[in-house]
TrEMBL record, chain A:
Record protein name field: Uncharacterized membrane protein
DUF2231 domain sequence ranges: 45-156
Residue intervals of the Cytochrome C Planctomycete-type domain: 197-255
SUPFAM superfamilies xrefs: RNI-like
GH29D-like beta-sandwich domain boundaries: 484-543
Swiss-Prot/TrEMBL keywords: Membrane, Transmembrane, Transmembrane helix
InterPro entries in UniProt: Cyt_c_Planctomycete-type, DUF2231_TM, GH29D-like_dom, LRR_dom_sf
From TrEMBL, chain B:
Protein name, per record: Tat (Twin-arginine translocation) pathway signal sequence
PANTHER family: BLL7424 PROTEIN, DUF1501 DOMAIN-CONTAINING PROTEIN
Pfam families: DUF1501 (PF07394)
NCBIfam families: TAT_signal_seq
PROSITE patterns: TAT
Length: 709, 484
């Protein structure tokens, strides 16, 4: 067993070994030729360095424990830890000195190297003089701690790049560069190198003897050859290395480092292909050039305006709830002004714009009532390019003022009447690139005149709808209820005021000549269906629209279902059938009773209070969803203990799938002397052959059963 | 009242807890985990970011998104595959299907018979794009639009796919695209919400839409989509009660704001100032909205352009017309949803009805924006959440079949706002099953939309619960080929 004291003496002696070796390597410097195996030791520097940092800082902490002198055993722990730290510091410094021979140079390296040496020397001194005055020791311990941290920071700067530590809290604002000024190298290529290459190829860490942090370095190339040769993929090492498979030792960036994206690869290749220039501007490339297309997206084709920006406070003041003034983009002096809100438009406010008259390039007054407003102020807008004045009641005098605005490129005056004089004036606006003249009451001859006068201008006359005859939309039927008890008011309406509505109540389709014209609300007292169509001049008649109304006269005293409806479609049970609420045909999930495996068998009892003569069933049909008319409907009455069939019906089945709809099936009873009735709806056993699932069982959906006397 | 007292107590406890905690050094770390912006000067950082928006000159100022909810079949609209008609009823080759997962609706099917379009296709415009006969009006504007045939998505069911398209994630807790744009660019017109939502329902098999789709997620509540309904009150609860005058209302809002500001000072909850802003906006909307929804001043050619349905509130056509009016008035993002495109069965019948409802009005919107000179600054998008399978769901009949969900390839179109016009982008294989050229992922699509609005999708972020979020999550690249 070793005693603590013997460990201590061994560690103290090894310290001198490290001091000796360190002195040799430091002094002999670059003249030493190191064997390869030592390189391995050198490269373990990044692992080793953690030991001295932790051990030394821990040891230093012990100097600060109050009354440590009186606790020798605790002091011992601190001292041993510090001593071990000194040893590791020595080994780490040695490894570092060996590593520094490899490919590191520069200012940070010098700082790191000497910092390491100072730390090593300092900790050795502190260890051997640890017994002197406590205050001096404590002061030196602080200095040593600072030296350790500083050295560590410089070291990290070498591996991770200088700004690594503080980068996350530094401002990362990106300057927006206009396309016209963007340089291929400076603004497109260099940012990629900066992000993916420079951390290993820069002052302080020049791997492969290639410096990428300045242009001279790139032009000079590295140890293996030239960095780029214009247009030569073979000899440009940049292109070679980045295109090697990722596992290749020479692949760049090295495996495990951030790789180039596909787009970055393309940009670098295209840069070399296009001549690898360090000065060329992006815009000098042809628009079809791949590099131009790739890179131009990063910058904006923002038009550069040479005039001065307006005062920011002025602009802010001019922004009101009815007027918006914005720069085209944040750095642009050019302004875009729009007015909104007809009721809040004060024409006087237009004169406020005087202070930004030089900056306004786009101006929109669409829909603002400009009748009688003097537009001469527009002539002061020296840089106005786009003017939007749709639907502003312009007169010929105002148009004349507008036609004299010779900086205009885009003019929209749709929705204003353009007379002959104005056409002549507009025809002089040769600078116009686009002109919008929809709804301007111009004849086709006028249109030709202006087209001829302005052959370079794109003119849009819009859609006039002439000669096009559309189907009217169907009238709207509104009724308070589908099922009613006394009488029902039905109203018909149409969004086009001039449309004529005709309707029938007998189930036939209305025609444009003989059917009743709707003039006032219809009152009904029976069960039936209203069908309506709309007609108007210049329009085709509408498709018919219909709506059922059901008169519910009597209600049975008792009712029950022999078989439960399917558990998925049971709504509120049998009560649903008598709730007088018509369910929506498009939503069969909630208010309809559905039957598939069993028929619907409904038994009702009037208890002698009333007699039913007519039975109406409200059914849902939706063939695509397997919901069909029942195969058979029958009504039976109870007579002397046996059920006697009173009426039956087999409704017709559609021969194709129609959309979901609700239909009313009515049966008349000849004999009304029955208190108890049984209504049976048998679902279709086999879906017809045309159906997508022929042979399957069909569903029957019911939502109301209505009895009338 | 009890609830309020309890909450007040909890708030005090929370404060006490936090102030005790702040004594310890550990609480700094914990605090920065719980309140991620504790040390980053959130307000300033965010403000600086907002000032930098848009990042560059936008090509489009506004978006109108015509969402075809339920997923219209690409094979009956824009992706013409005659091979499917030729090989009708034959089995979908394994080599084509590959590892594509199936929905529970057809996974149990023993055979996957190919089925061709019931409708005829023809080529239109200078771009010679193939369009089916049920979209005649869209065919008429084909040179103004850009059809993307190579869209693909991650989700295979409606809700996740829809949520993915709208928020960039399949789970519903992120801000919608409109909310992001409202957050990033604000409203042009301060009298109307920057993000408005319009719903309509077609005659085909429908799928639900939920308010989470236009949710502000973790963004300020002012960025939530405002739904316009088709009732007499287009925006619910906006009208003053009877006998309340404008000035009384003004007074009331001012006083509520005063009280809210007091609690803002006490609790510093940003939701309180959001509330104050919303009251203000609602007050201004009281005059702006009736102006907006009044269509009596529209010329008759407009009615003919959109079709007579545009006069019936709540129809897709009426919503398209309203969308144009909202957009023209500076609403940054108008989101339409039209339900009814989920044709698992009865496709030949239902899809025709669906197309009848949307075709004319969608095309009309493009023409209408164009004739006002607004198409150049308005981006219009038409499309669903995924595509439909090239094989039949259930059995094929002479004139009836259905198609299941297909996320691997589908078609949408875009127009205006800096998008190339008269172009067909991307290609699928002969079976219409896999993309063979220029795939566009949902995130790529979102990145492109943001780009057109002047926003770098990677730079518009919001820090929430310790990480920065963006609409495109962690992927997406701008499809530059689509940009004019």
């Amino acid at each position: 067993m070793f005693k603590i004291s013997s460990i201590r003496s061994i560690l103290e002696s090894t310290l001198f070994v490290w001091i000796g070796l360190t002195l040799i390597i430091t002094l002999a410097g670059n003249s030493l030729v190191l064997p390869d195996w030592l390189q391995v030791v050198g490269r373990s520097h990044p692992i080793l360095l953690h030991f001295p940092i932790v051990l030394l800082l821990m040891g230093l902490l012990f100097f600060w424990i109050p009354g440590i002198d009186k606790k020798p055993e605790i002091r011992e722990i601190g001292e041993i830890s510090f001593l071990a730290g000194c040893n590791f510091a020595g080994i780490t410094v040695l490894a570092g000195l060996i590593l520094a021979q490899e490919e590191y140079t520069g200012e940070i390296l010098t700082w790191h190297k000497w910092g390491g040496l100072v730390v090593f020397g300092g900790c050795v001194l502190l260890y051997f003089f640890r017994a002197i005055q406590a205050n001096i020791i404590r002061l030196s311990s602080v200095a040593l701690a600072i030296a350790i941290i500083a050295t560590g920071h410089w070291g990290a700067g070498l591996t991770h790049g200088e700004d690594f530590l503080l980068a996350p809290i530094q401002s990362n604002e990106i300057e927006v560069i206009p396309l016209a000024e963007a340089e291929i190298f400076g603004d497109v290529v260099q940012p990629i190198l900066q992000a993916k290459c420079i951390s290993c190829h820069k002052e302080g860490k020049i791997k492969g003897e290639l410096r990428m942090d300045h242009i001279e370095g790139l032009q000079k190339g590295g140890k293996s050859g030239p960095f780029v040769l214009a247009g030569d993929f073979e000899k440009s090492l940049l292109i070679q290395r980045i295109n090697l498979p990722e596992d290749d030792k020479k692949h760049m960036p090295p495996k495990n480092k951030a790789q180039l994206t596909e787009e970055e690869l393309l940009i670098l290749s295209e840069w070399v292909a296009s001549g690898a220039s360090f000065e060329q501007k992006l815009v000098t490339l042809p628009a079809k050039n791949e590099l131009y297309q790739l890179a131009s997206v990063k910058f904006e084709g923002n038009k550069i305006y040479s005039f001065d920006a307006a005062d920011k406070e002025d602009i802010q003041e001019l922004n009101t709830s009815y007027r918006s003034i914005q720069a085209l983009f944040p750095e642009s002096p050019a302004l875009d002004v729009s007015y909104f809100g007809i009721s809040a438009f004060p024409p006087k406010s237009l004169s406020d714009l005087k202070i930004v008259k030089d900056q306004i390039v786009r101006f929109s007054l669409n829909k603002m009532p400009l009748a009688g407003v003097d537009l001469k102020f527009l002539k002061d807008f020296k840089h106005l390019e786009e003017l939007q004045l749709n639907f502003t009641d312009l007169n010929a005098d105002q148009m004349k003022v507008i036609s004299e605005l010779n900086t205009l490129e885009v003019l929209a005056i749709s929705g204003n009447t353009v007379d002959q004089a104005s056409i002549q004036n507009l025809a002089k606006m040769k600078s116009l690139k686009k002109l919008y003249l929809w709804e301007t009451a111009m004849s086709s001859q006028d249109q030709e005149t202006i087209k001829k006068a302005l052959p370079e201008t794109v003119i849009d006359f819009g859609f006039d709808g002439k000669g096009i005859i559309y189907d009217l939309n169907s009238p709207i039927i509104s009724q308070a209820e589908m099922i009613y008890q006394d009488s029902l008011e039905i109203k018909l309406s149409h969004p086009i005021k001039t449309a004529e509505i005709r309707y029938t109540l007998d189930g036939t389709e209305p025609d444009s000549t003989s059917s009743t014209i709707y003039t006032k609300p219809i009152f009904v007292t029976n069960t039936g269906k209203v069908i309506a169509k709309a007609f108007a001049k210049d329009w085709n008649g509408s498709k018919p629209t219909e709506s059922v109304f059901m008169h519910s006269g009597i209600k049975p005293s008792e009712f029950s279902l022999v078989y439960e409806p399917n558990s998925k479609y049971k709504a509120s049970g049998p009560a649903t059938l008598f709730d007088l609420e018509k369910a929506d045909a498009s939503n069969h999930g909630q208010k309809w009773l559905g039957f598939q495996d069993e028929p619907m068998v409904l038994e009702v009892d009037f208890k002698g209070l009333s007699k039913a003569k007519e039975i109406s069933l409200s059914l849902l049909y939706n063939e695509a969803a397997h919901i069909f008319p029942p195969e058979k409907v029958s009504v039976q009455g109870l007579e002397n203990g046996t059920w006697k069939t009173l009426a039956s019906n087999s409704p017709a089945v559609s021969t194709k799938a129609l959309s979901a709809r609700s239909e009313l099936l009515t049966l008349e009873l000849e004999n009304t002397n029955y208190d108890k009735l049984k209504i049976t709806l048998t679902p279709l056993a086999h879906l017809p052959k045309w159906h997508q699932n022929p042979g399957d069982k069909a569903w029957v959906f019911v939502d109301e059963v209505i009895f009338n006397q | 009242m009890e609830k309020e007292i309890l909450e007040e107590g909890l708030n005090h406890n929370r404060r006490k807890f936090l102030s005790r905690l702040s004594l310890g050094v550990g609480s700094l770390a914990l605090g920065s985990l719980l309140v991620p912006d504790l040390f980053s000067g959130k307000a300033e950082a965010e403000e600086a970011m907002m000032k930098a928006l848009p990042h560059f000159a936008p090509k489009a100022k506004r978006v109108i998104y015509l969402f075809q909810n339920g997923a219209p079949s690409q094979l009956e609209s824009f992706d013409y595959k005659p091979l499917l008609n030729k090989r009708m009823g034959e089995e979908l080759p394994e080599s084509i299907r590959g590892t594509q997962r199936l929905t529970g609706m057809t996974a149990g099917q023993s055979s996957f018979p190919l089925v061709g379009s019931h409708y005829k296709f023809d080529q239109y415009g200078e771009s010679r794009a193939w369009i089916s006969e049920v979209f005649p009006h869209t065919a008429g504007i084909v040179d103004d639009i850009c059809i993307v045939k190579s869209m693909h998505t991650d989700a295979i069911n409606h809700d996740p796919a829809l949520t993915f398209f709208q928020t960039g994630a399949q789970v519903g807790n992120r801000p919608s695209m409109g909310s992001w744009l409202s957050y990033g660019l604000g409203s042009e017109n301060s009298n109307l919400p920057a993000f408005s939502v319009l719903l309509s329902r077609g005659r085909g098999n429908g799928q639900g839409v939920y308010s989470k789709l236009w949710s502000n997620g973790f963004l300020d509540a002012t960025h939530q989509g405002v739904q316009f309904s088709n009732s007499e009150d287009p925006v619910l609860y906006l009208k003053d009660p009877e006998s309340m005058s404008r000035s009384e209302r003004r007074k009331m809002i001012d006083q509520i704001a005063e009280m809210n500001n007091l609690s803002m000072q006490q609790f510093n909850d940003p939701e309180i100032s959001a509330k104050v802003k919303q009251y203000e906006m609602a007050y201004r909307m009281q005059t702006a909205v009736p102006e907006m929804t009044d269509i009596s001043k529209e010329p008759e050619s407009i009615i003919k352009l959109y079709g007579p349905d545009c006069l019936v509130p709540g129809t897709y056509a009426a919503n398209c017309l309203l969308a144009r009016k909202l957009s023209e008035s500076g609403v940054r993002f108008v989101q339409l949803y039209h339900q009814g495109w989920d044709q698992h069965g009865n496709l030949p019948n239902e899809m025709r009805l669906q197309a009848e409802d949307v075709d004319q009005a969608s095309a009309a919107l493009i023409t209408d924006l164009k004739q006002r000179g607004l198409l150049d600054e308005t981006l219009v998008i038409w499309g669903g959440e995924f595509g439909r399978t090239n094989y039949c769901q259930g059995k094929i009949l002479v004139d009836n079949y259905g198609r299941d969900h297909h996320p691997r390839a589908f078609s949408i179109w875009m127009a205006g706002g800096g998008v190339k016009s008269g172009m067909v982008y991307g290609e699928t294989d002969e079976f219409g099953y896999n993309i063979t050229e220029n795939p566009v992922h949902v995130h790529d699509f979102q990145a492109t939309v943001l780009h057109l609005m002047g926003i770098d999708h990677e730079r518009m972020t919001y820090k929430h619960l310790g990480r920065r979020y963006r609409l495109t999550d962690v992927s997406g690249k701008v499809v530059k080929d689509l940009i004019a």
